[in-house]
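Example protein
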Amino acid sequence: MPEQAGNGRHPDMPEQAGTGRPPVSNGRNPDVSERPGNGRQPGVPERPRNDHRPSSDERPGNGRPGAPATPDQPGDDLDSPANATAARLIAEGRARMSSDPAEDSQPRPRQSRRRVSALSAKLDMADLGAHLAALPELTKERFARSLHRRRRRLASYTPKQLRWHRLKLAGLASLGVFVVLPVMLFFIGYLCFAIPTPDDAVNKQVATISFADGSQMARVVPQEGNRIKVSIDQIPKQVQFAVLAAEDRSFFSNPGFDPMGIARAGVRQLTGGGGGGSTITQQYVKNTLVGDQHSLWRKYREMILAVKISQENSKADILANYLNAIYFGRGAYGIQAASQAYFGKNVSDLNSSEGALLAGVIQSPSRWDPAVDAPHAVERWTFVMDGMARQGWLTADQRAAAKFPVTIPPRRIAGGIPTDDRGLILSAIKDELESRGISEQEFSQEGLKITTTIDPVAQKQAVDAVHKSLDGQPPNLRSALVSIDPDTGDIVAYYGGDNGVGLDYARVLKQPGSTFKPFVLLADMLQDNPMGLGTQFKGEPLPGLRNADGASCQVCDLKQAMTISNNVIYHELAMRVGPQKVADAARLAGINTPLRKVDAGIALGDKEVTPVELASAYATIAAGGVYHPPHLVAKVTTSDDRVLYEAVNPPEQRFSAQVARNVTEAMLGVPTYDKLTLTGSRAVAAKTGTVQSYQENQNNDAWTVGFTPRLASVVWIGTDQNTPIKTAKGTPISGASMPGSIWKSYMVDATKSQSAQAFGQFKPIGSPPAVSGPYDGFAAVNPADIPDPATLPPDDSLSDPQDQSSTSQRPGTHQECDLLKCRTVQDEGQSSSSRDSGNSGGDSGSRTQPEAQTSPGSSPTGGALPAARQPVRG
């Protein structure tokens, strides 16, 4: 085989015709032989690129140094054109390589480099923006191509292949939803959720009650004395079985959760129902950590934690922790405290029947306590006992011999509730929450955060006003003060006594006395033909019906009678309007206590009401006939910030603003007459009330109720035993005395921060009063100028008893009513247009009165109305 030349061609291979390329040297050192690794076999000389054969002086093509030259290899011709061209190209390349680094090594100015960088960034951002702008279109195109390919592929399927393809997709989806996703969620939850401890229940069951401004009113922490931990060995087996029969009959066999129960809960959630389906382990988790939210999320957390607890705790430990954490009602946390609260004994002494009763109340302590609802308690007890028998935990003989146990009466305990006036507010809040569907159990276990409507400043002013007035007075006196915002129904101040676990006098039923007279007037104003404030009646005492000292008048209009609190006139008005209509008007204003078997005595307040609802009824009048339910709770959230309740009280127009303004007008003279006016000539209306005692010249209850356009308040004074109320000096207490002093002191302080507002424009309904505004109608008359009624000329001009409206009243006349009927009387100085001397039903002894002097602010009536005799206050 002939040796190849260094150019890779065979020595005998001629050069291609027409190339004209001379042989090119390989450019290697003649003394260096060619190294292996160049793709040629070592020792084989490189084939020349043309027919030139290397001379004997030419080096071998292996490039190895020191290798002897092959004798037949020709040498390079340095003067050949090919070598000259190669040398020239190499020189040019080396020149370029040497010039570029030198050129790049010159430092460019910093500003120039910044411009280059900014330009590059701008170009990059422009490029990126272009790509982002084109991305939606590109994605759309790719999706369209993918969809097109899929459609072509599906179009090529046979019907059988298409069905199989759809079944495969459905199977994969089902596998993902029902297997892969639950398993993934389970492991995620298992890694993330921490196991609660028994003490977490105590921390979670702390309720926080706040004032309206967010400051803390109270923090209700379950007392440790009401949570006495016991071991599972101290709880009798029959009591344990009773709890299992009531709450979880598969406790010993389930893995901590009930799959079917969770499925039922899921269906209920999807269909808008409630929760349910919890095992004892899940209930323990719910009560100590996750809360009572009716949702799939809560069930998911319950399930995960129940599994973890079941893996790390024995069933006995779980049951013991549950029984030591659960709330049983009556302020009792845990089975030991419940045993003491219901039976007055230790849990170790309970029998199966008593255990069944306790197990039955777990689900709803506030409803199934025998002291609250005995029939439902018996029904629940029977369910538990029958469950124990079906599970084999009771024999048939034991079940037949079991009787419903007798419990001890509930004892009111503090249970972390403040023992001062705030404790009564908390009790009222609990009752309000119960009416809103939030049970005592939720209050005691959910760690609720409750925002009230109580203004902390107004609350302190109310308490201080009561304490200041009662200081040094007989210790048997009791008081209540309730203050309401007429525009919202918010109770801004609430005082029911100083004993936070005692009787709440703000919600005690008491006779209101004369504070019920405005509702008699309201009933008249709601009639088709109202009489009006200017309608006059005789106000002298009658047999069996008397007035308080200084409250009698010979003739008074309805406003004057309201000012001096004349019983005779408003008793007569109630008879004419109808006692039941008076009760209906009171209920319309806000009195919710049933008023049954009413008669005309309702005008004098012989039916019992509470201070809260009386304040609410007056607030309706102050708000122009708009009723807002009185409430203490503004918002309720759980420990995990779920909103359970938020007060939304849409206004309800119970009667017209004009009617309300006329009733208000009737009470404007009372503050002036009883010295209850507020500072700064602030508009205020009020009414006092006194309930007389069975003892002569003594009183049992005293009230003051009044309002400005922005605040309505009531004050009551009485005793626990309904005995006469006296001051330390032995003076009988009336409505205008001690209650009036408390009311005025509080209202002056509470309204200081409020801008003064006036009541709306007064447009009289029916006959207008003699005097309008904050005057009593008597102070403008000099008693010496009042003539003797016997010297007045008789007047037997009568009117139709049904003709009582201002529109049917003749000019220059006024209305005068006795116990049976009303008549139109000619005003002084006016000619009588008609007389009816034949009416035997009139009062032949009645006389017209001289003109009343009116104040500058009084309303014109077309003729001055007669004034009544100046009352003398006792």
Notes: The radius of gyration is 50 Å. Residues 1-76, 101-105, 779-823, 827-874 have pLDDT under 50 and may be disordered.
